[in-house]
Amino acid sequence: MTQQWSTLDVKQLNKIFTPLTFEQRLLMLSRFFPQEDVLYTSSFGTRSVMLLHLVSRFRPKQPVHFINTTFHFKKTLEYREQIANEFRLKVIDVLPDQAQNEITAKERWWHSNPDVCCAVNKVLPLEPIKAKHKVWITGLMAYQTGYRSSLAVFEEQDGILKFNPLIDIDEGEWYFYTDYYKLPRHPLEALGYGSVGCEHCTAKGQGRAGRWKGKTKTECGLHPAGFVNQVQEGK
After folding, report:
1. Domain named Phosphoadenosine phosphosulphate reductase: which ranges (predicted)?
2. Which one, out of 50, 56, 64, 109, has a CA that is 20 to 30 A from the CA of 179?
3. Is residue 220 annotated as a catalytic residue, yes or no?
4. 205 is in an annotated binding site
């Protein structure tokens, strides 16, 4: 079971971690939480490489969980292998329920009901893994969406403590870091994809403008609180 964190605990952690650099935040995490309590997920998208590189430097034994919906671009899967090999990362695939995944493909839920598609192929498969951890490292950045702009370094949500070490980065800092270390970029970025998720729900566009294009949806559902309950209630 994950630990429940009081508001005071989260405030104290934010007071300690917010003034630190991105590198210091990852190092400091080890002083508060043993590695077995920490979950790290990555989409291996266009903005994933910086945190993957930081984790490889400062938490080299940290496994990386990749939610493999089976609907990713082939280029994303190739990029995942490239980064895993280059950074010497242990990547663990998280797969959806096979029957639900097959129904998704047959019914084309990504088109008719993208929230259900995300719930059964992304959010629900991660739930039992989250339940085994106390802290979840995410790559969320405040500048990316309105929802993310209100987040702090630490957020308590649904019984797990979310750690967002890059939340206050700006895009210029991201480019500086990746250029300085000459990090490999997602191959689809050069083709005009500012953000990359599942193939059916990703189009070319600046930033996240190409995600769920033509729909009001801006988040897959992994991070907003109570997403699955809202889907089940038809909201």
Report:
1. 39-203
2. 64
3. yes
4. no
3-state DSSP of 111-133:
HHCHHHHHHHHHHHHHHHHHCCC
**Using CA atoms, how far apart are residues 70 and 155, in angstroms rounded to an integer?**
29
What is the span of the domain harbouring residue 68? 7-232
Question: Which CATH number do you get for residue 32?
Answer: 3.40.50.620
Q: Is 201 annotated as a binding residue?
A: yes
**CB 44, CB 74: distance < 8 Å:** no
120 assigned to some structural domain? yes
23 annotated as a binding-site residue:
no
Average pLDDT over residues 188-195: 90
- 117 is an annotated ligand-binding site residue: yes
Tens-place pLDDT, residues 62-78: 999 999 999 999 999 99
* CA 80/CA 87 separation, integer angstroms: 10
* Residues 210-219: b if buried by 16+ CB within 10 A, e if exposed: bbbeeeeeeb
Least confident of 43-57, 108-122, 166-180, 218-232: 218-232
Q: Could you say which of 220, 221, 223, 227 is catalytic? A: 220
Q: Does residue 1 belong to any structural domain of this protein?
A: no
Number of separate domains in the chain: 1
Both structure tokens of 216: 């009001």
Q: Are strands 135-137 and 38-40 parallel, antiparallel or unpaired?
A: parallel
